[in-house]
Amino acid sequence: MQHQISKVLIISFLVCTGFFTAHAKDAPKPILSDLQITQLGYKEASKLPSELKGHRPLNRVLVNFVGVGEIKLLQSIAPDIEFVSIEAMGESGNKISGDFDAIVLSCGAPASLKHVTDVAWVHSFAAGVEDCLSHPTLIALNGNYILTNGRGTAAATIAEHVIAMTMSFSRGLHIFRDSQSNASWDRQLIYGTTLTTTVNGKTMLILGLGSIGKEVARRAKALGMRVTATRNSSREGPDYVDYVGLADETLALVKEADVVVNTLPATPSTKGFLDGKFFKAMKSSALLVSVGRGATTNTDDLIAALQAGELRGAALDVTDPEPLPTDHPLWKQKNVIITPHIAGTGSGSIDGAFKLMLENLRRYQSDEPLLNTVNKEAGY
Questions:
Q1: Fewest C-beta in 10 Å: which of 202, 274, 319, 323?
Q2: pLDDT tens figures, 99-138
């Protein structure tokens, strides 16, 4: 999530809930209910914040993507903390200086980390944290800090994007859009091809059955698809997933899939996971939809596979490199749809990300288990 947090949505949420009607001396009420936490797939830590490596009381917090108005709202939750907004400091012309105990940012905009040297807690609005984990500032801390992320806040939005891309290919909308730009009424495009088909009865394989994967699966099942998935941790999955396999079953499951959805995070074990061998295992009529991280796909192998007809097409919201250079060959592939890493954007996602951060701030101050703590060794 690399864009400005919507101030109107934040203020509306906090005012409408009546959260700030209490006096500062009163204990803040939970931002999220247990039901909401369950529905959104947030994971509660098994330990208290005070039991986690690097914990210390918060006195000064640097916050990205918020303005002066939101700073006042944050202080209503934690009146003893000084909150400093990068944006507000920029607007006033003042320089950011001094020590901070925590930073709230998007790891996709790691330049914010230049303002801190030693933090106890880092919270990322977005789910992906690879840019944080690889940043020299945090590497120097040797793991002595708490890291939480926004995993799940944009899951429903991203899932809708996946379905939109899948249906666009299923009905050949990308081809007809090109025809429209040429004012071409060409019904012959559909004859003798697999340009238009139906997803009903087809098989979708989801790589990574996390919060995003589950939301994609829920929607695919409602469209009449058979849904399979892979995950590292176990074979457990919701009842709307027909089969859950482990990572080492991927190539066998790929052979059965008509649509492959990549939701994998960027970790050392997933780098280049979708390679030449993977694409050769796909059906020549299959579609790849990628909304995880660009680095999980070997781009050269993907282009070669597309040109060789080893898969029908690719719908990519993430690429490697990113942003994609203007002269990159992926732009010229007729069987590719590219969106510029925006699958998770939308008012609901922004609002959800801020609510989660507020809840975690409240929990940190109250020494209650945090939501979405990241395993820094695993990378997610």
A1: 323
A2: 899 999 988 777 888 889 899 999 999 998 999 999 999 9
Among 82, 160, 322, 368, the active-site one is 322
Catalytic residue status for 123: no
Q: What span, in angstroms and rounded, lies between the C-alpha atoms of 107 and 132?
A: 5
Q: Which DSSP string do the residues of 53-104 spell out, in sequence order?
A: TT----SEEEESS--HHHHHHHHHH-TTSEEEEHHHHHHHTPPP-S--SEEE
The alpha-carbon radius of gyration of the chain (Å, integer) is 22
Geometric angle at alpha carbon 96, from 88 and 98, rounded to 5°: 135
Three-class DSSP category at 41: coil
Residue 194, C-beta contacts closer than 8 angstroms, at least 6 positions apart: 285, 312
What is the pTM (predicted TM-score) of this model? 0.85
For 31-52, what is the mean pLDDT? 94
> 55 catalytic, yes or no?
no
Neighbours of 234 (CB within 10 A): 9
Give helix 347-366 / helix 68-77 axis angle, nearest 10°.
40
Q: Provide the 8-state DSSP code for 206.
A: E
Average pLDDT of the residues in 165-178 = 90
Active-site residue (options: 115, 341, 362, 363): 341
CB 314 within 8 A of CB 223: no
Is residue 235 part of the annotated active site? The answer reads no
Q: Which of 55, 115, 123, 293 is catalytic?
A: 293
Q: What separation in angstroms does the CA of 276 have from each of 279, 318, 335, 375?
A: 5, 18, 18, 30
CA distances from 311 to 25, 171, 221, 315, 332 (A): 61, 17, 23, 12, 16
